[in-house]
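Possible regression after last week's pipeline update?

I re-ran a chain I had predicted before the update to compare outputs. Posting the input and the new output here so someone can diff against the archived version. Not blocking, just want to make sure nothing changed silently.
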Amino acid sequence: RNDNWYPEGDPRRNWDAGVVVAMRQARFAVSLPHTSLTSRRPSVDEIIADSSSLQSSCWLVRSFSFTKPILQWVAMVDSSMPQEQLLRQARKTLRCIDFVDISPELMTGAVCGAGATVNSSLYSLSRPVKRDEVIDFFLSHSWHDDPNLRYKKLKEVANTFYLKHGRFPTLWLDKVCINQDSISDGLKVLPIYVMACSKLLVLLGESYKQRLWCLWELFILFAFSREEQ
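New output (post-update):
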């Protein structure tokens, strides 16, 4: 669709918003509003006749014209791994960074998108977790919030921790604890990384609740925690 709602390059351009209304193991259903799209794939009649068709459904979001909402099934990419393989990968790649190695400069810059400053050399700032070591904090925050304020609050937590334990804390920080050369491997075991930490520390800034990544980390925490926790 040739629209001017969003600028060129914006991922929301040429797409219609829908509502996810059902989930299955290999696909999910989206309720789409009426739309007017120009590119051509299989006919509307073909899609309606077989609304469960996963092969054709992937094109429907950008391809057709409708006058009323329609339920569309979309296939999900199968990137599953056996549980044992996930655990082995998590143990092999689990890393942390000592608070003393975190600087105000490290808290600056987005992880992805415009203004991203992540590079593979940052990985060397973290270290493998020692045998029987438990990471003190999984750090959940938005890279789009004020870096100086985030570092100030983190320093306050670290100093309080030092007074109680006689040492500064260790943290899991995505920018340095995920190998940026194989980021997909790290993301597959993110739930294990979260649960491998003693606590999840949230630096709640203005943009935190608008960042899907931050909400995903909270979802993981609640999904894998015991009810009494």
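Follow-up from reviewer: compared with the archived run. Helices lie at 44-49, 54-63, 83-93, 147-165, 174-177, 183-188, 190-195, 212-224. Marking as no regression found.
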